[in-house]
Specification:
The structure is a single chain. This protein is an alpha+beta fold and 148 residues long.
Length: 148
């Protein structure tokens, strides 16, 4: 018996996927997508809260560095703008970083500015939440730095 590679039954099987295997994989991916995507897309409000918390932490870190350089936090009047450009007025920042402390002020995820107030040697930094007003519950709740 002559074993020739040209004989169809004796040729090695070619690698690859069959149409059925590909369809099974596509169906599995479709099922996973139908389960996972709504769960991810259904959480934009939670994503906004997390983004606001992250912004507030970053602003607070920049304020701490400002204080290390200038021995005091910016006044309420100087505000968060003091992190972007050297502020005028009292207290004068004597060791202001030539590169500033942040490139630009972020807005909160709902399009409002973050609120900054200095009282003595401490500051209060917060977002007013989804409703843009003080107080509130759930998505409308304020997000305060001291609560993070």
């Amino acid at each position: 018996m002559n074993s020739s590679p040209s004989h169809p039954s004796l040729r090695p099987r070619q690698g690859g996927f069959t149409l059925i295997e590909i369809l099974v994989v596509v169906v599995i991916i479709g099922i996973l997508g139908a389960i996972i995507v709504p769960n991810l897309l259904g959480r934009p409000d939670q994503a906004r809260i997390t983004a606001a918390q992250s912004d507030i932490r970053n602003l607070a870190n920049a304020l701490d560095i400002y204080r290390l350089d200038n021995f005091v936090y910016p006044s309420t009047d100087q505000g968060l703008e003091a992190l972007v450009s050297k502020p005028a007025g009292f207290p004068e920042p004597k060791n202001y970083s030539p590169d500033a402390y942040i490139k630009q002020l972020p807005m909160d995820p709902w399009g409002s500015p973050y609120v900054y107030e200095r009282e003595g040697d401490v500051f209060n930094l917060f977002s007013l939440g989804a409703d843009g007003a003080e107080g509130g519950e759930g998505m409308n709740a304020d997000i305060h730095y001291e609560d993070l």
